[in-house]
Amino acid sequence: MSYRALPEKQGLYDPKNEHDACGVGFVANIKGQKSHSIVKQGLDILDRLTHRGAVGADPLAGDGAGILLQIPDEFFRAVVDFDLPEVGLYAIGMLFLPQDEEARAEAEASVISFIEGEGQSILGWRDVPVENSGLGYSVLPSEPFIRQVFIGCSGECTDQIAFERKLFVIRKQIENEIRQSELEGKEAFYFTSMSSLTVAYKGMLLSGQVGEFYPDLNDERMVSALALVHQRFSTNTFPTWDLAQPFRMIAHNGEINTMRGNVNWMAARKESMASEILGQDLEKVWPLIPEGQSDTACFDNALELLVQGGYSLAHAMMILIPEAWSGNPLMDEKRRAFYEYNAALMEPWDGPAAVVFTDGRQIGATLDRNGLRPARYIITDDDLVVMASEMGVLDIPEEKIIKKWRLQPGKMFLIDTEQGRIIDDAELKEDLASAHPYQQWLNETQIDLQVLPEAVASMSPDASTLRDGQQAFGYTSEDIKFLLTPMVLTGQEGSGSMGTDTPPSVLSRRSKHLSTYFKQNFAQVTNPPIDPIREEIVMSLVSLIGPRPNLLDLSHGGNNKRLGVQQPVLTNTDLERIRNIEDNTGGAFKTRTLDICFPAEQRSSGMKPALERLCDRAEVAVREGYNILIISDRKVDADNVPIPALLATSAVHQHLIRKGLRTSSGLVVETGAALEVHHFATLAGYGAEAVNPYMAFDTIQSMLSKLPESLSFDEAQKRYIKAIGKGLKKVMSKMGISTYQSYCGAQIFDAIGLSSTFIDQYFTGTATTVEGVSLQQIAHEVIRWHSDAFGDNPIYKNHLDVGGDYAYRLRGEDHAWTPESISKLQQASRSNDWNTYEVYAKEMNEQQERLLTFRGLFDLNLAEEEIPLEEVESAKEIVKRFVTGAMSFGSISYEAHSTLAVAMNRLGGKSNTGEGGEEDSRFNPLPDGSPNPERSAIKQVASGRFGVTNEYLVNADDIQIKMAQGAKPGEGGQLPGHKVNAQIARVRHSTQGVGLISPPPHHDIYSIEDLAQLIHDLKNVNPKARISVKLVSEVGVGTVAAGVSKAHADHVTISGYDGGTGASPLTSIKHAGSPWEIGLSETHQTLVLNQLRGRISVQVDGGIRTGRDVVVGALLGADEFGFATAPLIVEGCVMMRKCHLNTCPVGVATQDPELRKRFTGKPEHVINYFFFVAEEVRLLMAKLGYRNFNDMIGQVQRLDMRKAIDHWKAQGLDYTRILTKPDVDESVSIYNTETQDHGLDKAIDHELIKQAAPALEKGEAVKIDIDIHNYNRTFGTMLSGRVAENYGFKGLPDDTIYVKANGTAGQSFGAWAAKGLTLELEGEGNDYVGKGLSGGRLVIYPPKQSGIAKAEENIIVGNTVLYGAIKGECYFRGVAGERFGVRNSGATAVVEGLGDHGCEYMTGGVVVCIGSTGRNFAAGMSGGIAYVLDQDGTFEQRCNLAQVELEPIKEEDDALEALDHQGGDLEGHGRVDVSHDMTRFDAIRLRQLLENHLHYTNSDVARRILDNWNEELPNFVKVMPVDYRRALEEMQIQQSQSSENSKGAR
Amino acid sequence: MGKPTGFIEYTRQDISYTPVADRITHYNEFVVSLNDSELTQQAARCMDCGIPYCHSGCPVNNLIPDWNDMVYKEDWQAAIAVLHSTNNFPEFTGRVCPAPCETSCTLNIDDTPVTIKTVERNIVEKAWENGWIEPQIAAHKSGKRVAVVGSGPAGLACAQQLARAGHSVQVFEKQNRIGGLLRYGIPDFKLNKRIIDRRMAQMRTEGVIFHANTHIGVDIPARKLVDEFNAVVLTGGSEHPRDLPIPGREFNGVHFAMDFLRNNSRRVQGDTFHDSEFISATGKHVVVIGGGDTGSDCIGTSTRHGATSVTQLEILPRPPEKENKGLTWPDWPNKMRTSSSQEEGCERMWCVATKEFVSDDEGNVKTVKCIKVEWNKDEEGNWKMSEVEGSEFELKADLVTLAMGFVHPVHEGMLEELKVELDGMGNIKGETEGTSAYKTSIDGIFAAGDMRRGQSLVVWAIREGRQCARAVDEYLMGSSDLPR
Hints:
heterodimer, A: alpha/beta, 10-stranded mixed beta sheet, 49 helices, B: alpha/beta, 5-stranded parallel beta sheet, 20 helices, globular
């Protein structure tokens, strides 16, 4: 085992897919007073964050933890046996070294030589004492030898800053030297720190082990004014010492999504970067960011450069992680100019991030623009600041705390220990923004394309020339029908439904667009995708074209001009403006157009030399001073063939990066090969700063007369550009990237079916797993298109090719589902006819002529001797491994949904509710007590949380957390209002006729530790259920799955990209995710290598159709199998692909009552099908020689790859990596053999349940008093599960179980709290309070002894409170964090202020906010109402008005008048029930809620408002969703009509 | 694409016929078609299925959703272009095809398929009316000569495709007019022969040379074609009729259906010949043996002659009124169908075997002796027929037509002379896929249509003719751009 202990790249496992996310924190004394208690408190924080970390198979092996401190001078003077100069004149390099003495000596020699070489002196060495007895067995072999080297500052460094800079230069050189050396054990070599200010102690430790492992830390003389700590939860699972945090300057909780691009861009700057401060030393630090580090390590490298290059720490952080400045009307102009100016210096490092940073003097933290990580802090009256991912990490007496707050999105918070004060975000940024005249600099250097003079563009060609051109770029008639037409008509991309069942491009017999070999990556688990529509405020398509300024030019941005465009799609006129730019910018820009066509007569062999020439010409042009290159294929004609624009762009981009020239020039693409969103996404991802799709424009021009709507060309073009822009935002956002600038060059793709030689040459750094075509075949594809265009083929004379990608066409692309296969499957299962099934299975399985799937090229390695069929495990047992896919009741009809459930229950398999809940009439037992035949055993929990009540959850066998869906990973969904009928609205706890949005992310899962938390929450509600996590195949999914296993999921599903959907953008159906063969194999290999496979069950789904598919899946490592499309087809689906239109003619995917009558499916048909599949499995098992299914799992050596010799593209495929069997000890499980330890025994809820026994058993009221701490997570949830089991969702009478808790609650306080349960908390809450609230009442207020002056100016609960709440009441005295009430569908809450994105996607309930709100309030809010106290009249600017209207609270007179007519509504206890009519009674409702709030929390604000009711009422604004009002009014009319009708009948 | 909700909004509406009393007085077509607005509405019912089953249901794989959409959008000219891209002769199929496309239409699951055939027929008729159908003359001639023997739908389709690819094509037909089965097999009231003529005119301009009254293997030795042409395509149809060898077969008035029909059609089309050569059903009791399309044609013709009675005998049982959709769709089901000719008046009998013809003193058939039969499955699950004891009965019959299908091509003459290899059924042996597609056992000789596949539909013949043309083109040129 190597020192670094990360396994080598093998099979599909690649260490570069490691991710991490974690708990971070710091403690600091504002005045800079050093003490040992700070160190101790740092270690305590680590201890309290344990639940945010993870352990792998070895319980004593953590993912890493550490602490960063100021150098305790006294301590080191005492422990070293040599003299130290005065403070500041020496530095400590803390080193991980190889254990091997010889290697160590060699490494140390290298350290010495560089230190001395740079003119500094070695003062001495110290062996750092360690106590390793607590380390786990898997960690010990990797433990490095840890030493500190003491370095004396020489005369050359005039001050400490210069000394630090020198140390940086020395360290970079040593690191690079060692990396390139042949040194044995060089992986172990690592500087945790090297500074005269700070020292970092860290390691591959559990958080509690840090103090234990380093006895130094327990020494009283170990003092510091600040301690920065970090606890790691890596989705990686292998012990590595160097990836533990903190790094030299930072600790990070989150993920950098754009890392590949950021690293590339840094490398690309090499030639254009110069620093007055670093001078010649700058050249010594390259490569600045070595390959193979974690994202945080890379970030740290970049930060170091900026700081050592002269930027202040805060400034550097703001360059790397800027606020969302573009299009923010609330931002100060000066600050916007500051950001805009800096934007050209560097693209943002984009992704969710809470970064804490220090240089030893200042310590601070910043949050990403979208606030995707939690960061809370407190300030005490004795100058202590404690900041952490959550509250309660240190036991500080409440009376000492004077401020409790949180870091807000994009905000920064800095403590300057030398100045002895806190510098808040506003001051910090004001200072920086004023430091230079940024606006003036911008005016001088930045040119907006639109202000350049008009230019004349060429006109569209005649029809036949156009057609030839279209054909040369592979246009099909489908491109026009399915892609262009919807974009031009609606301004957005068209939708489709059902999954893709065409072969991957490498298996296709046809020429394919090069971009189709690239599959979009997407965020799952380790970071959240963004909603580009509802959270558009963080998205930006701004692109800067042309040379980047010198990153390290601190003063004036130089004479570098920058050219900006609002979005990257250029019209023909725009492009001409750029071509002519030299004259209009005084020569600041010079443009050269590079033709990328090659002579047709050279056939496919012409492409390689053409590419070489192209790269040379590009390099020459840049060196000659051309700073915008236009890559163009306009010259295509009968004699000239275009290189695929994507290939040409990437080749030039990579070439210029290699030469360090890329930032010296802009890259613009003029191409006929860009038509749909994915084409633009790939071009952008591989370096295009802007794209001119001239052929698409010409085509649009030619279509105008045939469109149903009369459109001008300008309007049509505008809509098309808008559609592409929207699509790009969607593609970016699914990876959690919010700016085009960061997306550009970020290479967020996996290659499927491209050879590594091709990738390494032209798409360097992209993952490719199964090899495939190389340049020659790519050239051949282009030549084929060219011949279609300019040859004599009569089919193409007047028509474009039929395509056949989106809908089946006989002369088009192949599909798995054909008229033949569908009819045979239906006929077989309806008549229970095995022979017909065999015909079907043969059509699917035998892919000789027609390659459809990667598994089609597998050969089963049969046993020499077949075993008798009767000895093989029975079909009855095998079918228990089968489940049907997650299809919501909503996307499919009640009939289709319940038929599947009935079939699976009879069979012993499982059906899945899909997103959207389940009616209790389907899961409650029948009157005779027998199980309900229509119950879905798997209950899905998706991002919308529709109908996810405690009762729903306790009635599950499996609870599936849907992280992603094969057809549209990284995206949300939408159920249009017309599909939400009364029944669906009831199940989803929403309003009939109002559309419902499922957000792209789970708002309680922004990283792996959040997922662990949700798993924990769900397990608490229903300890008997297995918790499952559904992932979609992409490169790196295995690493995520390992994290999921460590997060204690019992089950993981790996879905192929070809899974089905009820509605999804076409781009997503086709271009996101990978085939399951790859993802499953990677998952299995990674889990086995980590010894995590045994504790988790692995399921595969996505286009599983036959028994052979099941067998291949099992051999690749699956325990269980999901089927969706096939059983739907058995039920009658005929692959209309019209689910999204509600016009399913067979009653499967429709809510239309007339069409539903056409449904003919029967449970028996489904049962027949699954038995056929199982029988086919048995036949194959007999041939393979397996008696038991388990014996077959993971036996990948039984698969061989059949070479596709006759296939012109597939012959290059190589499955070696898929077919790698991890080499592990026999004792390591390779299938699911054990269960997870969820640690539920530690739950405080056991105590609650005990005390609440009278209530649970007899409904008697109980009162419970209890203390609570931040590690008591998920409070009241297990208890609520028991209430739901006994009493259902309707629960118990109010206050039956009354719990009074004291202290700081952990995450998920009161999650899924049941009706009848009241949780009163004197203290504070963390994130996810009241998640899934199911009727309970939550009350939180500060402790009586609290030192804070005003509760309403302090935070009381964290982020994402009331996410997915269904019902209940909450009163929070204080301010809540971001995303309050997201997806609330019925709870009522009063709060005294809240952060950004409040009430997002809310569909019901009432939120009263008597303080200010953050930005983007009510985004996507389709139901419920909110009352906001708008004291200063600025609320409108912070509210997202896309779906809601603001109105004053109606005068009470109206409401009272109405009441007079409805006297009967008055209830017994004197209060008026006004909950039934949300369109009226506002003032009464508001007043009642405030009275409650005062009653429960003693709120000062509530009292003030109630005391001054008449003056305060006009300050309230009512937020009313437009659709909701319409729907409510419609229902009222209906009700009154029906009541009048019934009167009439009497 | 039609209109997504079209199938919900509009009910199926199809052609109707003029009243029986009216139409049986002539030999003209009697279809009452839909008007344009009805047609666009019907086309709007097409749902643009993700998998268009009609596509595969149709032997020539017509791009049905595409042209339905064009008709819905009233772009008839685009529609004919797409329609012609897969089918040389939509005017034939639009009239006489049994429309398996409609059977496999998704809406046929609920018995309301899109009226595809009617839309097809109207697209092509509108195109002829508007002059959109023009000869497509090859720009370059290949210099290769191809002989096509037989001018039925397979031969014509093959010839047209080859001519368009630049080859010199000559078509040989033994009858006096071009068209094969289209010409004399299908009565004029179902397919007006001007329809064939106008298509021939187009083909002539495209360079096809037609030779009628030229019986290869009789008038001209087949070998001569092989010697003089670069390729020969045999598309002579499956003309050997199934006989009924029972006592009395030789009596006057017992005829093969085709003899009855051909004579009638020739007279309708203006040939003059002596009454003695003409088979008349006027005033006769007619018995038609065989329940297929040819049988129906005999019925319709007899009715128009003024037969006293027409009785149709079918040996198989009466099919079910409605098929079991779940088990048959999208395939062609066995179900009760009534043709326009049957509708015009005849008695249909099922499960009847003919035992003997009885004549009068002059050797003219007078009655037919029949017996009822039963169909049961044997142990192996095969259907077996048995006669029902005591169920014998007699029918009056002055004219009997034998319409029991065709067994294989005529072997005598050309085929025997060429000695091409036959398959087990007596058809010319040949594949449809792969490198030897449509090749016979003799180099340079190809076969397509019923002559190769046995008796079948016009639409299959067109498919084979087209595909064979590609095979021939490939054979002659090394590669081919002709669509399959």
